Amino acid sequence: MDTLQKEKNITLIKDVLRNYLLEKGFRNTPERYTILEEIYSMDHHFNVDDLYLLMMQKKYHVSKATIYNTIEIFLDAGLIRKHQFGEKTLTSSSYEKSYFDKQHDHLVIYKKDSDKEIQEIIEFCDPRIQGIKEAIEQAFGVKIDSHSLYFYGTKND
């Protein structure tokens, strides 16, 4: 993605956040926008510890509590998505930006001989899953708005 498009995207998600904060009556703080920009500059999944360390390295003075509270706001605003990949970390939830992303699923690859230490996360979209979703909707008379699908494994040598 080119720099101009990234700037347009950042402006758009800031507007989404501003409108959300106004609608909910939350404070409109510069820290929230800084955290949002950092998240949307990433190209991978992250946890709160990752984000906190990144913010500290860049000399942003935000507490881990502020990040946790901000993450909850971003989740509710639809700006990020939460995942439970089953990893063994202090903060077991992972997150990813979601405002511009299409529905996708995850293949979580653990390191061999580890206690659920993640080696790699592969995002994929398989059109056959859409067919399964439609069959479930028809069978149960529902409209599925979203889904999450995770496969877990290790690489073959």
Structural features, described:
The protein has 157 residues and is of the alpha+beta class. Helix content is 46%, strand content 16%. It has five helices and five strands, in the order ααααββββαβ. It has helices at 3-24, 30-41, 48-57, 64-77, 127-140; strands spanning 80-83, 94-97, 105-110, 118-124, 150-153. The strands form two sheets. It has a three-stranded mixed beta sheet with strand order 4-3-5, with no helix packed on it. Helix 2 (30-41) crosses helix 4 and helix 3 crosses helix 4 (64-77). The longest helix has 22 residues, at 3-24. The model has no long low-confidence stretch (mean pLDDT 87).
How would you describe this structure in keywords?
single chain, 157 residues, alpha+beta, three-stranded mixed sheet, two-stranded antiparallel ribbon, WH_DNA-bd_sf, repressor, DNA-binding, Fur_C, transcription
In angstroms, what is the radius of gyration? 18 Å
Order of helices and strands: HHHHEEEEHE
**What's the count of strands?**
5
Helix share bin = 40-55%
Task: Name the poorly predicted regions.
Answer: none
Subcellular location: Cytoplasm
Protein name: Ferric uptake regulation protein
Main location: cytoplasm
Subunit structure: Homodimer.
In short:
The chain has 157 residues and is an alpha+beta fold. The chain contains five helices and five strands; from the N terminus they run ααααββββαβ.
